Hints:
It is built from 11 helices and 6 strands. By secondary structure, it is an alpha/beta fold. It has a single domain, classed as Uracil-DNA Glycosylase, subunit E (3-Layer(aba) Sandwich). Strands 1-3-2-4-6-5 form a 6-stranded mixed beta sheet, with helices on both faces. A hairpin with a 2-residue loop joins strand 5 and strand 6. Helix 2 packs parallel to helix 7.
Amino acid sequence: MDSGVxxxxxxxxxxxxxxxxxxxxxxxxxxxxxxxxxxxPPPEAAPAAPVAPPVARGAPELPPxxxxxxAVAIAEAAAAGAADLDGLRAAxxxxxxxxxxxxxxxxxxxxxxxxxxxxxxxxxxxxDEDAQGKPFVGRAxxxxxxxxxxxxxxxxxxxxxxxxxxxxxxxxxxxxxxxxPAEIAMMLPFVRRHVExxxxxxxxxxxxxxxxxxxxxxxxxxxxxAWTEALGVPAMPMxxxxxxxxxxAAKREAWADLLExxxxxxxxx
Length: 269
């Protein structure tokens, strides 16, 4: 059915309507479909998890940090490899684990006859010992010689009357301080091997440090005069000669201890 409206009339009608909407303030055509302005917006999506950066293929792995060398284990291996006293002395001279070596003039290894029945073990070298490279050569050493000379023994004596002398430490501690536990521990394997190679019948432990190292305890005033055992060998703890120089009254006890050593040697055990 004909509505009676021409196409020209449609055009002018649409134009009039558009002009009327513009006068009302409409300036933009948004959508052909109506929009509900009262509808709530949809919830925001959760943020995506961060993506780890890609790992480089074929990158070299860092090695684990190196552990400090075990000075005691190195000393044990070096001492065990010594077949004789010359080898032991060389192993001690090559040992780099003890810082005392850097401040010492000489390695103080031993003195006397290694075939002796009695092996004296002192604490550490002093200034005179460091200078000469021999144990017990200062005032304390001279007193030690007189002490054992009183029972017919000495480092220069032959055969049954011979004496062999060494120390726990072969290098002088600075200021003549006492050896530290770590220093004793790292040198103890060499002392053990030293006793094994010499094979004495009796050990004389001079002073607190040698008792601590070989008996595991101190207190020379309580330990002296009583036979004990160290490294499988009968041992007599005695006052160190340096102590006797400071405390002459203790020479009476030292003399009694020397007579004990003499009696044991005479009776063969």
